[in-house]
Amino acid sequence: MVPAGGYLLVSALLFSLGVMGVLLRRSAIVMFMCVEMMLNAVNLSLVAFSRLLGDPTGQVLVFFVMCVAAAEVSVGLALVIALFRNRESIDVDQIRLLRG
Amino acid sequence: MDYYRIAFYLFGALTVLAAVVVVWSRNLIHAGMGLLLTLFGVAGLYALAAADFLAVVQILVYVGGIVILLLFGIMLTQRIAGRAPRTGVVNRTVGALIATGLFVLFVMVIFSARFAELPWIAQGRMIDRESAPPVGSTVERLGQLLVGPYLLLFEVAALVLTVALIGAAYLARRSRQEGARPRRMIS
Known about the structure:
heterodimer, A: mainly alpha, B: Four Helix Bundle (Hemerythrin (Met), subunit A), 6 helices, about 0% strand
């Protein structure tokens, strides 16, 4: 048996690693990967609770999160590519036009 | 030790270790491969939590689609020839502190909440294999939910995806006057 805590612990670890990646990395693409990891962590706890309750509504929610994640990645990558075309770099430290 | 628990630990370890690779690897391609393994591990965990349809969708959409898209993004935005696509690490102390603090908070919440004993979870220990009733395929039930109570959300999700893809194609498109475009628009 695996209690709910097992799933939630994996989910918490995955989310924290995602936060750490967004804060630590400078490449916009790796930051995207870490955002995907955070979304997956939330999905994992939704699935675990769906199992805990015996109610598939949580899985419907995961389905919609996946849709939004796919949309987010496609728009985000288009932005990164447009940025690279203008700046020849996707290092977020060098994007400081709006810095005061 | 039963096979269910062994499989859970295997997939959980795979997920977390691959996530560590994503966060720490300097090589962008290695980070992409780590993300692939992370998503695969999460798909395995879905399957263990009786979400078979979501496990398949996870592999199709994430592993087959999003990771490939990200790898294309890496290839389009790096100078591949000559050197490996590498990237640095910043804010080491502050970032690690914030993430660790968040993790400690999560663990405290998980252990103090005792989810399995909450009154609103009627079938408290459903995840335990011994006490949980066997569940069949979730595809039929999910399909009924998606075209029943969640039909409007389903259609809105389709609209969101269409608009997002059109927007992405517009953003990533090369402009007509390629030569006239100022090279260094942003400082």
